[in-house]
Write a structure and sequence with these properties.
The protein is α/β, with parallel strands linked by helices and 139 residues long. The chain has a single domain, classed as Rossmann fold (3-Layer(aba) Sandwich), CATH 3.40.50.720. Helix content is 35%, strand content 19%. A six-stranded parallel beta sheet has the order 1-8-7-6-2-3, with helices on both faces. Strand 4 and strand 5 form a beta hairpin. Helix 1 crosses helix 5 and helix 3 packs parallel to helix 4. The longest helix has 11 residues. The protein is globular, with a radius of gyration of 14 Å.
Length: 139
């Protein structure tokens, strides 16, 4: 599919998406992943925590991997080190996710190219919360 780089592309993705799996979501309120999940939850998205080391976060049961999620996943939001994201991109493809979003400073060209070649929309090195707030602030 493609890399989403323009405001219009990113806004369209956020508008058409309902379920966001957050890989690496922490249950610690001071962590960025928690703040992002809380924000997305408050915006009406269904947030699915993906972290094998926690049971739940924000009242939602966590799953150990993307493969454990039932139903369609619109966006896989990745909070992991760049050297750890290739297996996540592969799993996102396997479960038929529509898009993969690599958070700020999560830059892995190989994983992004792989996901894009397999038909996923890709956003890299951007925060989904910052982008959502910026693109939807007037709505």
């Amino acid at each position: 599919m493609s890399r989403l780089t323009t405001d219009e592309q990113i806004k369209s993705l956020l508008k058409e998406s309902k379920r966001i799996a957050i890989v690496g979501l922490s249950n610690k309120p001071d962590r960025d992943s928690y703040k992002v999940a809380e924000y997305l939850n408050n915006q009406g998205y269904e947030v699915i925590p993906v972290n094998p080391t926690i049971d739940e976060v924000l009242g939602k049961k966590a799953v150990g991997s993307l493969k454990e999620i039932e139903g369609q996943v619109d966006i896989v939001d990745v909070f992991r080190r760049p050297d750890q994201v290739m297996p996540i991109a592969e799993e996102a493809v396997q479960i038929g996710a529509k898009a993969i979003w690599f958070q700020l400073e999560v830059v892995n060209e190989e994983a992004a190219n792989f996901a894009s070649e397999k038909g996923l929309k890709v956003v890299m090195d951007k925060c989904i919360k910052i982008e959502h707030k910026r693109l939807f602030k007037s709505e």
